[in-house]
Structure formats: C-alpha cells, structure tokens
Design a protein that fits this description.
The chain has twelve helices and eight strands. The chain has helices at about 1-15, 25-35, 50-60, 65, 70-85, 95-100, 110-125, 135-140, 155-170, 240-250, 265-275, 295-300, and strands spanning about 40, 45, 85-95, 185-190, 200-205, 215-220, 255, 285-290. The chain has a four-stranded parallel sheet, sandwiched between helices. It has a two-stranded antiparallel sheet with strand order 1-2. By secondary structure, the chain is of the alpha/beta class. The chain is globular, with a radius of gyration of 20 Å. Helix 1 (about 1-15) packs antiparallel against helix 2 (about 25-35), helix 2 packs antiparallel against helix 3 (about 50-60) and helix 9 packs across helix 10. It is about 40% helix and about 15% strand.
C-alpha cells in the first residue's frame, strides 16, 4: 500500500511540474519506479528522464515564465561579453526526446505543441538580442541518426549539422574560415552512457592544423563540447566538435567544457579561469555556448555570473 501511494505521488510530481501534465510523464514515473536511469523507446533508443520532463513542459502555456531565469542569465552573459568586445552565440542542443518523440509514442498534435514551445524559447532568447542556433528543424528533418541510440549526446551526424551555423557566425565575428576538405565518415563502436548493448556511430576524424590553439573562438558548455574529443568515457578523441571546427578554421579553438550541467557551472568555470588569468579572454572574438536543451528548466540554477577579473559574484 505504501509503495502504491509512493508511486502515485511520484507520478503526480512529474505530471504537475511546471503546471502541465504531459504525455511523457507516465514513462518517466514508470522508469523511476523501476529505479532505471533511462526511458526505453522504440528501435533500441534510450532517453534521459530529465529530457522527457523538459519536453513535457514545452507544451505548457507557462513555458515563457518557466524559462525566464535561463533567458535572463543568458542575456546578462551576452551583455557582459559585448562590453568586452566578444560575440556570444548560444547553441542549445535540442532534446533527443523531442526530435525522436515518435519513438516514445508521442502523437502529431502533441509533437506540434512541444515544437511550438521550443520555438518560443528560441524567440525569447533572440528577443534579447542574443544570436541563437536552432538545430531543431534540421535535426527533425535528418534521415541519419543525429543522436547516439543509447547515449545522451549528439552523434557525428549531429555535429555535422551544428558546424555550418557556427562557422557562419564565426565569419560574422571576424574569424576567417578555411575551406578544408571534409573527412570521411568512419564507423566507431561505443558503449553509451544510457547502458544497453554497444552501438556503432559514424564519426569524422579530420586532419588537424599544425597551428597552435588560438583563443579567437572559445567553445564553452557541457559534455557536448567534450564528447569524441576528450577521450575516456566520452568515446575517444579526434572526432568531436573542436576537431571539426579546427579543420575549418585552421586552428584549434579554446575548449572549456564541464561534465553535467552547462547552465551555470560552465560560466563559473570561465569566471575562475579569468580570475586566475585576467588575460584569458584576450584575443577572443566569439564564444559559442553549447548546452543540452533540457537545462532551460531542469538545471539546478541559472545564476548570473560575472566573468570580469575585477568582480566575482559566487
């Protein structure tokens, strides 16, 4: 009896988060009742429960107010960088459970409502004068797997889609872009962070420039900037977003990625770097801030962080 009551309360907590009961709440509640760290979808796909909680909230009429702390922090960060002569581009990675919602049994009308919520968030950021890269249209139309099947990160194909808009913004920021030949795709077997059997992903391993790391472009964010780049449990090196950008730019960008939430902790890490080395951002023309889209509502906090070496607010 006590277990049943606990499950009912858990389901209600998930359903009422953000004041909106979405179609994915029962799947999250069921996974958590089984103490599973993933939600099983169709065709061997697995999803992070936090992704589903966020995607449910996208259909809420209150989505703008739910993401207002995130938008305020993003706008504040962009304003600080602008004062320092640095451009900011924000790239929230669309939730896998939104792009592949049909794998979770979401119907067309529900999908449309969720997509509209995502578009509202993109518009909110843009209304504050912050350039934002919206990958959802291209991801949704892609025939290839833009996400790993049983991992929380984008695949090599997903990185391919992110590269052109970043390079266009880099050009606008005054960073020269070369026309490097595109490396061939190679099949690589990985064991995803959502468990299950190993899978094959297609990755590009470009020839890297001989030039040393250049601070003109800084990749800031969560493990999306580290996957296929840092090694270890992030599935190898030489094929991440930093490498793809290096091949096109002729230099390796500065990389500052954190594991876990890229919302506040990544900016805190940047502030610490600047405090320890005041010239850290000297020569930086653009920062590309990449984080999982779920962070808009699922991050622990969206604190405003000063990146000035003269003022720290944490």
């Amino acid at each position: 009896m006590a277990r049943t009551a606990k499950l009912i309360l858990l389901s209600l907590a998930v359903c009422t988060a953000g004041g909106h009961a979405g179609p994915l709440a029962d799947k999250v509640a069921a996974a958590e009742s089984r103490q599973e760290f993933f939600v099983e979808g169709a065709d061997g796909r697995r999803f992070l429960p936090a992704d589903l909680r966020f995607v449910d909230k996208l259909a809420s009429p209150d989505i703008a107010s739910l993401v207002s702390p995130a938008v305020a922090a993003i706008s504040n960060f962009a304003s600080q960088l602008k004062d320092a002569g640095i451009s900011l581009a924000v790239l929230p990675v669309p939730p896998k459970s939104l792009v592949q919602s049909s794998s979770l049994g979401v119907g067309p009308e529900e999908q449309a409502a969720m997509t509209a919520g995502w578009e509202k968030i993109m518009a909110e950021i843009g209304a504050h004068g912050v350039p934002v890269v919206d990958l959802l249209p291209e991801y949704s139309a892609a025939r290839e797997e833009v996400f790993c099947l049983r991992d929380t990160h984008w695949s090599g194909r997903g990185i391919d889609a992110a590269l052109p808009p970043i390079l266009r913004m880099a050009t606008t920021a005054g960073i020269a872009v070369n026309s490097a030949p595109e490396a061939a795709l190679k099949d690589v077997e990985i064991s995803g962070d959502l468990g299950g059997s190993p899978e094959k992903v297609q990755l590009r391993f470009p020839s890297l420039p001989t030039a040393v790391q250049d601070p003109q472009l800084l990749l800031l964010g969560d493990s999306h900037v580290l996957v296929f780049h840092q090694g270890g449990d992030l599935h190898g090196t030489g094929a991440g977003l930093p490498e793809q950008l290096a091949a096109a730019l002729g230099f390796m960008p500065e990389v500052l990625g954190v594991r876990g939430s890229g919302a506040t902790s990544s900016r805190m890490q940047l502030a610490r770097r600047v405090k320890a080395k005041p010239e850290y951002l000297s020569g930086t023309k653009m920062i590309v801030w990449i984080f999982a889209g779920r962070e808009f509502t699922e991050a622990d906090t969206w604190k405003k962080i000063s990146v000035s070496p003269r003022k720290q607010d944490f």
